[in-house]
Amino acid sequence: MQNGSLFSNWTTHFWIGEGGTDMAQGQAGIFRNPVLIEALWMTLKLAVTVAITTMALGLALAHTIARNKGSVLATVLGQVSFTPILIPSIAFAAAYIALFGAPIGPLPSLYGTFLLLVLAASAHLLPYAVQSGRSVLGQISADIEESARLTGAGFFRRMGAIIMPLAIRGLLAGALLVFVKIVRDLSLVVLLFTSTSPVLSMLAYRYAAEGFMQFANAITMVILVLCVIATLLAHRLQNRVQKWKSA
Amino acid sequence: MNPANGNPAAIAIRNVSKRFGGFTAVDNVDISVPQGAFLVLVGPSGCGKSTLLRMLAGLETPSEGEMAFMGRTVSDGTRGLVADAGGRDAGLVFQSYALWPHMTVAGNIEWPLKVAKWSKADRAARVDEVLGLLGISALKERYPAEISGGQQQRVAIARTIGPKPSILLFDEPLSNLDAKLRIEMRSELMRIHRATGATSVYVTHDQVEAMTMASHVAVLNNGKVDQFGAPLELLENPRTTFVATFLGTPPANLISVTKQDSGLVYDGLRLADAQRAKAHDGVQLLYRAHDIKVGDIEGQPAITARFEEAAPIAGRTMVTAFSNGQRLTAMADGYFSAAIGDQIRLSFLGEPSAVFAMTGERID
């Protein structure tokens, strides 16, 4: 097989190869693995959901902190929203199992559900969202919002019509950060994951654990491509919105 | 200050104080103005005038006292904001203009009307109307970043008067404009005030704006109202040295004198009769710039001072000089100039306009 020519020993087997051959103990390529597509969608769904929820929550928290600057509330919120970053993901996941693994009153056990993954990931990545929300809001002067308040517009109207359009660029950047982090993340999902909620990083981990490094590497490539596409999309979106800036 | 016909004052500020921690920004302010008034709150930076305005706008809550618009209580020290910022029929023009950068000029003016649930046709008509009133119809589709500061100012005013508020609040609206534009916008604002008929409150540190625009002036100093009244009344009868020196162009002079025998003496020179000092031994005499003239005048007391600067004003020259560390402003006929540090003679024409105790309050 090894005849010295550069590409002669390259194979696409680990991507699209059929199962049952001599290669890799009869394992099929990753694109023939039915779990892959499911994991891909699950990962995307999780990442998008978490990016949106953390950014919405992060913006609301950042707004409260910015507009109540100096108060006890702002200080406490600022500190608490930063805490998750100090906790190792694995410990965070364990805590969430302990918290939601068993039914609480009328609430059913959340273990293994998509909801638990979203909850844990959102809480874990909240610091990134709050920090980017704070830096974005720092650039919007209080006057701009006060002038909206004087018109009689309520909180949500001000958020939707004034703050969001002005903050959208920074929010997209923050959302991208959260998205990429959750797509790559393993240590958080490894404990919360079940077969009903497979994600890409978990799939790569499983291949690697069984010694199929090439398959694991292929999944890693898929994750990388996903992140690159998300980055490019976010970049394009950032150029699309806030046209008034470039005009 | 309720008008005689029994109508409630358009704006009544009753014993309002505002404290931030241990710091008192506004201290027991009590003023009210009738409908259609143009109230100017004037004072140096940090005197509490902007805080007072923000309380009127509903952006801050008074710590004590009460504010009422047309007899309706809007803020209360004990109950907080009785009417929210949006619910008090008042519009505020910000010092920074605070235009929404992502909306066009027309969008900026239209949005408050949208919030107030005006119909589409009414909104379009009103936007065109206020654009025309401010003379900025051509800028309709531009974004705030694409127009000049003076134009942004006009947009900010147009946006504020759009929903036809009965009270207009201005927070140093002209301070970001160049001198020429400022004078232009001053008359523009007066025209809008007349056109809308709205009761206006105008905050400024520029006493010229106060003197030219106001129907009522409140001079604020360290959170307190030093004096409240018509502009000319304040100019002619200042009750404190602060008001006397803060208002008027060129600035008036305060000269510290001591009682000697039957006269009030400055640097060995008798300026006025000792009776004007009443029981005080040392007092401050108010001389307006036009009551001190450059050069000796037969029969009038004169001193020697060190020339500092000269500025021509309307065919005469305003001269600043120092005497014993005291800054004096005098007038010279025609154009006058000298080298810095030159010794010049200053003559006092007639009696001082007012006499103040050393602590600042007026005694004669």
UniProtKB/TrEMBL annotation, chain A:
It comes from the Bacteria. The chain crosses the membrane at residues 39-61, 73-98, 159-180, 186-208, 215-234. The keyword Transcription does not apply. It is a multi-pass membrane protein. It is found in: Cell inner membrane; Cell membrane. Residues 40-234 form the ABC transmembrane type-1 domain. The keyword Transmembrane applies. Keywords: Cell inner membrane, Cell membrane, Membrane, Transmembrane, Transmembrane helix, Transport. Pfam families: BPD_transp_1. CDD domains: TM_PBP2. Belongs to the binding-protein-dependent transport system permease family. This is ABC-type Fe3+ transport system permease subunit.
Automatic annotation (TrEMBL), chain B:
SMART domains: AAA. GO terms for molecular function: ATP binding. SUPFAM superfamilies: MOP-like (SSF50331), P-loop containing nucleoside triphosphate hydrolases (SSF52540). InterPro entries: AAA+_ATPase (IPR003593), ABC_transporter-like_ATP-bd (IPR003439), ABC_transporter-like_CS (IPR017871), ABC_transpr_MalK/UgpC-like (IPR047641), Mo/tungstate-bd_C_term_dom (IPR008995), P-loop_NTPase (IPR027417). Keywords: ATP-binding, Cell membrane, Membrane, Nucleotide-binding, Translocase, Transport. Residues 11-247 form the ABC transporter domain. The keyword Transport applies. Belongs to the ABC transporter superfamily. This is Iron(III) transport system ATP-binding protein. It comes from Aminobacter ciceronei.
